[in-house]
Recover the amino acids of this structure.
């Protein structure tokens, strides 16, 4: 039997967790939030709540993934906790849309930032902005995908470099935003308006965008099969990476609100570029807009890395998806990588940024909810299972995660039934594939 290779260390895993979260969401989503929520206190609380939920989820994923170490994320975990059909449905989500859709959204955001800068520089006309944005998105994600055909060491260096760049950019925005920008007069103190907003449906819906921004907190569990010392490094990477992101997110969004009038942010995707112009002036804003666009490569890369690993594991276990398990000479699931890229292209050319985020937020939340519930199930079913790491704050932290997720899903179904409907259709399609495969295997 070939010896299992562990090639990914703690620092790379932390970089993957951070990179998966910092990207599309934090540089875009506040524009959609302030359309209905205008209190500074409510917005900050929204991001703090999302961070606490993400950390609680990370604690639970750390226990489950360290106790059942195998790449594949929810596909592997839900198969072990419930039944292979549940794991397959979750894995199918990842194969069909779970990673391809967020990769497309990140690529589209990168294109929007870059094309806005080009319009500002009068390099292109406003009429050409949409076409140029798509061209940049396609070129960027294609380049990143080609990099991921290389060896793990090269991909790790690529990932760490762009993650570091992105964090530096955020720190520059935070530090200079406080030091040199003028306040637009927004208050971050609680008031009657903020309490009304917190219990409203828009607050719950906005949490979908926030949780999408934090969605990479579980990414390290997808590559656990390649982690060195997973019992230690998995929970550490999940916790440290998520904690860093929480602190950065709250600070950055506070700076956006502090330096930029809400009416300029509302409904806009390129909020980082808009805020940078207020902080640094036109020329400085252009430079930051370019750097943010380049920094989004990190988010694209981390998801391009993780997605094919889920497909690979599904290919190993599923007869009709067997080609997805094939690796190249560098140990990369090459066919899965190509397949994912094709789906990304379909999303880029056929959908909008907001539709992608709302749709994917619903089905990914459902998967993570079922996984965290699994902590309670496995504690009851297998109390003697070897657990290199146990969920901190159990049972309060997983219960907190579950309560918030159920509350959020309720309002998504109530307020955005169309997106919830298509999410359920996607899951049902996966179940059909599962039963077709089962029939093929039995014959």
């Amino acid at each position: 039997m070939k010896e299992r290779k562990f090639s990914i260390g703690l620092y790379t895993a932390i970089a993957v967790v951070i990179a998966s979260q910092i990207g599309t969401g934090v540089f875009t989503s506040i524009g959609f939030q302030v359309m209905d929520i205008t209190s500074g206190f409510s917005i900050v609380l929204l991001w703090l709540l999302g961070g606490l939920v993400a950390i609680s989820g990370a604690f639970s994923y750390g226990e489950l993934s360290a106790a059942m170490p195998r790449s594949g994320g929810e596909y592997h975990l839900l198969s072990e906790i419930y039944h292979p059909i549940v794991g397959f449905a979750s894995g199918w989500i990842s194969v069909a849309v779970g990673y391809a859709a967020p990769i497309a959204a990140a690529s589209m955001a990168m294109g929007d930032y870059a094309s806005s800068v080009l319009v500002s520089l009068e390099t292109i006309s406003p009429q050409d902005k949409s076409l140029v944005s798509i061209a940049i998105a396609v070129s960027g994600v294609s380049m990143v995908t080609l990099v991921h055909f290389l060896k793990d060491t090269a991909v790790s260096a690529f990932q760490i470099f762009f993650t570091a760049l992105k964090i530096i950019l955020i720190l520059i925005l935070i530090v200079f935003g406080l030091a040199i920008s003028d306040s637009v007069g927004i208050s971050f103190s609680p008031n009657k308006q903020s309490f009304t907003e917190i219990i409203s449906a828009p607050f719950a819906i906005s949490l979908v965008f926030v949780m999408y921004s934090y969605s990479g907190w579980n990414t390290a569990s997808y590559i656990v099969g390649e982690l060195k010392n997973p019992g230690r490094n998995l929970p550490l990477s999940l916790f440290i990476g998520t904690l860093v992101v929480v602190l950065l997110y709250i600070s950055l969004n506070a700076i956006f609100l502090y330096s930029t009038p809400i009416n300029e942010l509302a409904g806009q995707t390129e909020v980082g570029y808009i805020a940078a112009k207020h902080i640094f002036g036109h020329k400085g804003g252009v430079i930051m807009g370019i750097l943010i666009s380049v920094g989004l490569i990190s988010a694209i890369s981390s998801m391009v890395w993780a997605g094919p690993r889920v497909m690979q594991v599904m290919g190993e276990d599923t007869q009709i998806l067997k080609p997805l398990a094939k690796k190249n000479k560098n140990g990369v699931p090459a066919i899965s990588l190509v397949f994912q890229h094709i789906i990304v292209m379909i999303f880029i050319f056929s959908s909008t940024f907001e539709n992608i985020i709302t749709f994917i937020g619903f089905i990914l939340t459902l998967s993570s909810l079922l996984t965290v519930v699994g902590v309670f199930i496995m504690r009851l079913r297998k109390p003697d299972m070897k657990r290199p790491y146990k969920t901190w704050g159990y049972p309060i932290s997983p219960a907190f995660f579950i309560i918030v997720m159920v509350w959020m899903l309720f309002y998504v179904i109530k307020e955005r039934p169309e997106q919830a409907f298509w999410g359920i259709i996607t899951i049902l399609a996966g179940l059909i594939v599962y039963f077709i495969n089962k029939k093929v295997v039995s014959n």
